[in-house]
Amino acid sequence: MKDNHLRGLYAVTDSTLLADGRLLPYAESALRGGARLLQYRDKSDNEARRLREADALRELCHRHDAHLIINDDAELAARLGVGLHLGQEDGSLSVARALLGRQAIIGATCHARLDLADQAIAEGASYVAFGRFFDSNTKPGAPAATPELLERARQRFSQPITVIGGVTLDNAPDLIARGASMVAVVHALFAADSASEVERRARAFSALFAGN
Known about the structure:
The chain has a single domain (8-208), classed as TIM Barrel (Alpha-Beta Barrel). It has 212 residues and is α/β, with parallel strands linked by helices. It has an eight-stranded parallel β-barrel with strand order 1-2-3-4-5-6-7-8, surrounded by seven helices. Helix 2 packs parallel to helix 3 (47-63) and helix 2 packs parallel to helix 10. Helix content is 42%, strand content 16%. 2-[(2R,5Z)-2-carboxy-4-methylthiazol-5(2H)-ylidene]ethyl phosphate binds at residues 136-138, 166. InterPro entries: Aldolase_TIM, ThiamineP_synth_sf, ThiamineP_synth_TenI, TMP_synthase. It is an enzyme of class 2 (transferase). One of its GO terms (biological process) is thiamine biosynthetic process.
């Protein structure tokens, strides 16, 4: 099941883009368009709202045979029985693995460094994420990764590889050809005027993986 899901479009929510009631309808449109993973990314300290939204997203993911991933909150992920994504400053991956169990999907941000990916995999990461690859609204100051790094990572690791940072429909095909298992997309997916446009974009991203 895991390998089947860890390939394709990885939709990442943004609390600003998806404010004013857009979170659930836009997220469902991404799932309807074929997103395999959906990451709930909300850095606020409103725990009650975050629990409510994450629970609703979990139900949507279940309905569309996708997986919910919580950004940087192992306790929330454990409470809901869903996956987790950790940045480099967001706690121990091995502790999170012990908390969430062997079957949970846990991803790790590795910036542009293969050694960080080595460490994450040793600690039990299900997938490793490299970026940013292009100019990014979400992470404008993040270290820049290169397509060559992606090729080296593909040769070195058997685990799925996620690419993030300015990924668009125009530049994603090259990254997929060089070894990306998943493309994590924020603005190019969710900066849309309607839920139907989100679904159209999600279908277009998902189609890039057909036959690959």
